Amino acid sequence: MDAFVDEAVPPKIRISADEISNKTIPAFSESQLLARAKDLGSLNKPYKSYIGMGYHCAVVPPVILRNVIENPQWYTPYTPYQPEIAQGRLESLVNFQTMVMSLTSMDIANASLLDEATAAAEGMVMSYVSSGYRKRKFLVDVGVLPQTLAVLRTRAKGFNIDLVVADALSAIEDDMLRKDLCGVLVQYPDVNGHIKDFSTFAESVHAAGALVVCATDLLALTMIKPPGEWGADIVLGNSGRFGVPSGYGGPHGAFFAVTEKLKRKMPGRLVGRSRDATGKPAYRLALQTREQHIRREKATSNICTSQALLANMAAMYAVYHGPIGLRRIAHKVHGFAQVFKDSVESFGYDVVNATFFDTITVKVSNAKELHDVSITAGINLRHIDDHNVGVTFDESVTSNNLVDLINVFATASSSSPVSLQQLREPDAPAIPSSLERTSEFLPHQVFNKHHSETEMLRYINHLVSKDVGLVHSMIPLGSCTMKLNSTSSMIPLTWEEYSCIHPFVPFDQVQGYHTIIKELEQDLARITGFHSTSLQPNSGAAGEYAGLSVIRAYHESRGESARDICLIPLSAHGTNPASAVMAGLKVVSVKVQDDGNLDIEDLRSKAEKHKDKLAAFMITYPSTFGVFEDGVQEACKIIHDNGGQVYLDGANLNAQIGLTNPATCGGDVCHMNLHKTFAIPHGGGGPGVGPICVAEHLSPFLPSHPVMPLGEKAINAVSAGPFGSSSIHLISWAYIKMLGGQGLSNATKIALLNANYMASRLSGHYNLRYKNVNGRVAHELLIDLVEFDKKAGLKVMDFAKRLQDYGFHPPTCSWPLSTCMLIEPTESETLEEIDRFCDAMIQIRKEAEDVISGVQPKDNNVLKNAPHPMHVLTLPDTEWNRPYTRHTAAYPLPYLEEKKFWPTVSRIDDAYGDLNLICDCPSVEELATT
Ligand SMILES: *Cc1c(COP(=O)(O)O)cnc(C)c1O
After folding, report:
1. What are phi and psi of 898, to 5 degrees?
2. Which of 326, 509, 701, 823 could serve as 811's disulfide partner, Cβ 3.0–4.6 Å?
3. In its UniProt record, which GO terms are filed under biological process (predicted)?
4. What is the arithmetic mean of pLDDT over 627-643?
5. How many CB atoms lie within 10 A of CB 898?
6. What does the alpha-carbon distance between residue 791 and residue 532 come to, in Å, rounded to a whole number?
7. What pLDDT, on the 0 to 100 scale, is given for residue 919?
8. Position in ligand 1 atom list of the atom nearest CA 624
């Protein structure tokens, strides 16, 4: 093994085996780890939180808890780029989009963004872009959540947008502001609970030629007039209270909806409806393959991984409860707020907000005293200032909780405590009639028929049975690293002591979480060779953005803010240039040689040419071609010599751990994709965690957060949660702890070995695009299929779709080169599974040969017609006009007779960018009846 590793990894970048060993990262058994997680969980105090500010303690229906978030069939699949084997989650994401469109009354919604704060930032940037990059002022109402404002500040910087924070209703009268205004963000209801009427305001924003962006709450929208009915152009928020655990900050699915005229500018993924080759309706991602087509330096958003799993949970919650159930929950929450308000008023308190849905702001003489009483009662209230406290209700609050809460205010005002029997039901909702919702919502059948647990269970399982995940077979996606994670690493995150914690609770209530966060930060710093870590970014792309913003802040601190050039190789992932642009950098591309290696001379000449303005160089290592480049340290030195900083894209870090590290390679900052390298499952397109590690000189600049402020050099927040999606940090923490240093290093070696084994089994059948001087690849391999196109018109997609018939999710297709497949087995696959995949690839190669030699025609063959769903195979004999048997189509290798996964539709047209395919509210039953 060691001799092999020496052939694969250049000696000059190797680190000593002691650096990542069981001495530096001790190993735990599964049972030890679970015991430790239990112990640490008991340090998180189970206080009842009424903090609000966009986060709620959600009640997860058990049928969704067990069958979605705890179900590997839902949490292990990849982003649905292969729609034929992803119809289940595509349908569920359409449910999510439909739910958002219906509740907000907007024309179109996407399939989730990372969190509410970054969604607001996307809304701000869309407003700026819509003004033709001409109007620089963006007005933010004072009622917006503080964490949203912090993220807006960070994001505004890169685009040079001028944020104006004011009372929006009056500020909009200012003509100076109106002249240069691109958009406005309002919170509805606002952070203090007010529900303001924005309809005339929206007219005057539009009259100024600007957009209205509205952050809102889906549950409130069941009772209050939806923003789409009073003129909002962009509506966004967090869908977490629809049955997604709060998890000390996440993950949650943010939603984002726009009017028809803005749909082409909308960030993120969108599911639309198309047809398969037989004319059967089917779903697919509408703006196909975002990250491959992400518009590089022309991009205005870098969204790749989003929050698919959590969006699916929220959609299922709406399917389960339906419009009537949602309204009932909303009435309960609102009713509790009313009872609370009446009670505290009877104690002599003043309530600040005349209108409210679930949030009440109470004036108090001494907020500290009141908080002391509430903490003693095990209750967290929102800290506003010395004279105001906030109380927000959610579905989880019971009537006994309500009594306890009211009695905190009774005690603090020396009133006599109340009992449950003394509380009086409110007469009618307290929402002003002009702001009441009168329109229907969620009329679609899917939201009106799965309301018994039995039906719900069947619906969840019906959908997921259409999708290939790691529960079926390996998903050999190069760069995206689909490793199966252990069940033991998943178990703690739905434990109450981790799942039901508000992100803004006092520090001393989350000692368990903080021990885990600290340990994970330290382990990641050790693994990367860097000094410190920020866990805040919610995806790899968000990490890139954070890291580049840190580099900018560093240059600025040295009086070098003019440094704004970012060198990026042409082979880079599309998010790299997109993130650079968002951080206010100008992208200059660097050439790549045919063998995938960086063109060092081109790099040198460009670095020297831009010497005075060079900010950063972004490099992926091993490269996107699956290569450990020899020249990485030299490349980094060139950058440093010319005053730049090196950003290492760590998506491929799983090929480095224990053998080398980004610091040794010459980097200053790197991100990791914990949802690739550190075993967080992909969730069908998210959640992700994209932490950054930085060298010591950059650590003062790591992102801060309004509720967890860091030093004065720190950049503003990049995510809504101070530690991003805290609950899933547990997974990577557990993965690292259970492998220990030795296991982590072994995992890397086995990942390299598996890729090289595969390269050698496929050689002679396929053309391997690159190997190093020793004939070795790194952890993935790039095979070029161009010959089949030349000889027989067979494209990469034909091979990919045929692999579905063999029960496999195809490898990464047409990236980083359009004629190639990038294959990555990972360390978690067995020899048997790798052989099964290779057997399939080799058999397909034979089938391709039949097309080349003319045995099967070029336009009607087993590859072009793939995949083969049952309804095609069971066509009457008269319609089966194919030059191969049904048996060959379905069972080309013996293992399939025993283990067959059936795609549910035939090939879906992958044509890119036809926006007419986007759902105009397609419903499931419409599909069923078509
Ligand atoms: C996956 C990936 C990214 C983007 O990460 P997300 O978490 O999807 O945002 C960036 N670079 C490379 C090389 C990747 O493979």
Report:
1. -100, -30
2. 823
3. glycine decarboxylation via glycine cleavage system
4. 96
5. 7
6. 53
7. 35
8. 13
217, 319: one domain: yes
Residues within a 6 A CB radius of ligand 1: 304-305, 479-480, 539-541, 573, 575, 620, 624, 649, 651, 673, 688, 690
Our mutation pick for probing the ligand 1 site, out of 293, 303, 305, 725, counting the most ligand atoms within 8 A of Cβ, is 305
Task: Fill in the amino acid letter for 514.
Answer: H
| Owning domain of residue 542 | 13-27+496-738
- Asked whether 623 and 648 are in contact (CB, 8 A), the reply is no
**5 phi, psi to nearest 5 deg:** -60, -40
Closest-CA residue, ligand 1 atom 8, reads: 305
Domain stop point among 738, 758, 782: 738
Query: Residue 873: is it exposed, middle or buried by C-beta count within 10 angstroms (0-12/13-18/19+)?
Result: middle
At 187, which CATH number?
3.40.640.10
At which of 475, 508, 524 does a domain end? 475
| Among 259, 261, 303, residue whose Cα is nearest residue 118 | 303
Domain contains 67: no
Question: How far is residue 192's CA from residue 880's CA, in Å, rounded to a whole number?
Answer: 65
Task: State percent of the chain over pLDDT 70.
Answer: 97
Measured from the Cα of 302, ligand 1's closest atom is 9
CA atoms of 672 and 585, how far apart (whole Å) = 21
Task: State yes or no: pLDDT of 145 exceeds 70.
Answer: yes
Query: pTM score > 0.70 for this model?
Result: yes
Question: How much of the chain is helix, strand and coil, in % rounded to 5?
Answer: 45, 15, 45
User: Residue 638: how many CB atoms within 10 A of its CB?
Assistant: 24
H/E segment holding residue 95: helix 87-104
